[in-house]
Specification:
- The longest helix is centred in the middle third of the chain and has 15 residues, at 95-109.
- The chain has an 8-stranded mixed beta sheet, sandwiched between helices.
- 35% of the residues are buried.
- The chain has a single domain (4-177), classed as Gcn5-related N-acetyltransferase (GNAT) (Aminopeptidase).
- The protein has helices at 26-36, 43-51, 95-109, 124-132, 168-177; strands at residues 4-5, 16-20, 55-62, 65-75, 78-86, 114-120, 136-141, 152-157.
- It is of the alpha+beta class.
- 30% of the residues lie in helices and 30% in strands.
- Bound molecules: coenzyme A.
- Coenzyme A is lined by residues 36, 84-86, 91-97, 119, 123-126, 128-129, 132, 180.
Length: 180
């Protein structure tokens, strides 16, 4: 899975690669983060995530340039996608899709058979991406995002028992960074 290349990425002269996120990627990650989310995670949050043994973070690169990233927590049999973003000038080129499929492959490698995430109700692009890969909306969390008061849509790939919605590990992890 790691360092795979994509023959289907024709718009760039240099190939797209998906590789593990490293500290030297964080300037770009934080810059893309600020362009992508109403409330952004700080650099320290990513530094912490890189030390988290239950986390896996990946970046998409065109040549040496980071153009997107995604991450998740895996506590088998569940994975929780925590973030996914592509730089605005690189969107609609299949990069988000490549990151998502790489995360799903990594989740499977780490023993997770179910994958969940939350997405803002208004985020049509992300919801369409997740839906394309089989995620289904199973619940709403009213007013989940404190910055706008917007609802979160809880999506799952493969059904999960209701108890997993209140899994203690997930809850403690979320409190570190706040919702996306
Ligand atoms: C969501 C996001 C990661 C998608 O990345 P991307 O590289 O532009 O997406 P892709 O080009 O791989 O598109 C894959 C699929 O996603 C969906 N999609 C992506 N952008 C879309 C848009 N603007 N409108 C509708 N559907 C869209 C489509 O289903 C698309 O498949 P298709 O090309 O066959 O139509 C990107 O828009 C982004 O970074 N948004 C800001 C951050 C964010 O909202 N992250 C998600 C947090 S939950």
């Amino acid at each position: 899975m790691i360092a795979e290349t994509d023959q289907r990425f024709p718009a760039q002269e240099e190939e797209l690669t998906i590789v593990p996120m490293a500290r030297q990627d964080l300037d770009r990650v934080v810059a893309i983060e600020r362009q992508s989310f109403p409330t952004s995670w700080r650099r320290e949050a990513y530094e912490r995530e890189l030390l988290n043994l239950n986390a896996r973070y990946l970046v998409a690169k065109v040549g040496a340039e980071v153009v997107g990233y995604g991450g998740m927590w895996v506590i088998a049999p569940e994975a929780h996608i925590t973030t996914l973003a592509v730089a605005p000038d690189n969107r609609r080129r299949g990069i988000g899709e490549r990151l998502l499929t790489a995360l799903l492959e990594a989740a499977e490698d780490m023993g997770a058979s179910r994958v969940t995430l939350e997405v803002r109700e208004s985020n049509a692009a992300a919801r369409a991406l997740y839906h394309k890969y089989g995620f289904e909306a199973v619940a709403y969390m009213r007013g989940y995002y404190p910055d706008t008061g917007e609802d979160a849509v809880v999506m799952w790939l493969n059904p999960a028992p209701p108890a997993s919605q209140v899994n203690d590990d997930r809850a403690s992890g979320e409190s570190k960074h706040g919702p996306r």
